[in-house]
Write a structure and sequence with these properties.
Layout lengths: L2 E8 L5 H17 L2 E10 L2 E3 L2 H10 L4 E8 L7 E3 L14 E3 H5 L4 E6 L7 H9 L24 H4 L3 H11 L4 E3 L5 E4 L9 E2 L2 E2 L6 E4 L4 E5 L2 E5 L2 E4 L5 E2 L5 E3 L10
Parallel strand pairs: 1-2, 1-4, 4-7
Antiparallel strand pairs: 2-3, 5-6, 8-9, 9-12, 10-11, 12-15, 13-14, 14-17, 15-16
Length: 261
């Protein structure tokens, strides 16, 4: 499987140290023939933000390659955040409206925050070590879920690292093929609808694997780039792709969404 490195770089700060570290990362990728891409983060008040568009793009790649996400930042800066839905007003956002990029990457990509005033040369060997492990047990593993879309307490993300945490998650929300989230949405493995083959942390999932997500009443479901009202059901894939159509679901339109681009 291909290896990709996505570098997140503050757009509003000029620094020789930053540029030197960025050039060093790009050089390592060229020498090892790893794909390299860069995306900007922005400051909004005290927050460091990655746009929903970029976050979703990177999240999709995590299911098609082994991905490293490196967050390059100045000393003392917080890690980058992403709005959980495109309609979130980030100037008055509550913490529950946001998710860290680290949270998005957990279970699906290698993530590292990198201060540009420190030696960061060891990241490449750590990434390679991560790619040599398979950190998913198959389609019934809760780590396959897009945990920023599945409604559950965000603290579950860390707990899923351990077998005991995954067992506890299954006991609360249901096992593998059928789960019920905190919005009472029913996530049931559905029949193949597509030819795409996705991967989670080195585990190849069955072709077309996804969930049929059913609602007993009109219920909203969101990703960083789209919001849907489920009237009956939508299809959701591990890479946070959401598909639906009338009369079963309706996609909301937010032409004036505040998610930074």
């Amino acid at each position: 499987m291909n290896l990709e490195v996505w570098l997140l770089v503050p757009s509003e700060t000029q620094s020789e140290h930053r540029d030197r570290v960025r050039s060093g990362i790009r050089k390592i990728c060229q020498e090892r023939e790893w794909a390299f891409a860069q995306r900007p983060t922005i400051r909004l008040g005290k927050l460091t933000l990655l746009s929903g568009e970029y976050a979703h793009q990177i999240y999709q790649r995590m299911h098609r390659a082994r991905v490293a996400v490196l967050s390059l930042q100045k000393p003392g800066a917080g890690g980058p955040l992403v709005a959980l839905r495109p309609s979130a007003n980030l100037r008055s956002a509550r913490r529950e409206d946001l998710v860290s990029v680290r949270h998005l990457c957990r279970h699906k990509a290698f993530f590292l925050r990198m201060r540009w005033d420190r030696d960061v040369a060891g990241w490449a060997s750590s990434f390679l070590s991560w790619t040599n492990r398979v950190a998913c047990l198959g389609q019934n593993d809760a780590r396959c879920l897009p945990l920023h879309v599945f409604s559950a307490d965000p603290t579950w993300s860390k707990r899923l690292v351990a077998t005991a945490g995954r067992d506890a998650f299954d006991n609360k929300y249901g096992h593998g093929g059928h789960r019920i989230d905190e919005q009472n949405l029913s996530w049931q493995v559905g029949p193949d609808h597509a030819q795409v083959v996705l991967n989670v942390a080195g585990m190849e999932l069955p072709r077309g694997f996804h969930w049929d997500v059913n609602a007993s009443r009109h219920t909203a479901v969101c990703s960083p780039i789209e919001e849907w009202v489920i009237k009956k059901y939508v299809n959701i894939w591990p890479d946070a792709t959401i598909r639906g159509r009338e009369p079963n679901a309706k996609q909301r339109d937010f032409p004036n969404a505040k998610n930074p681009r």
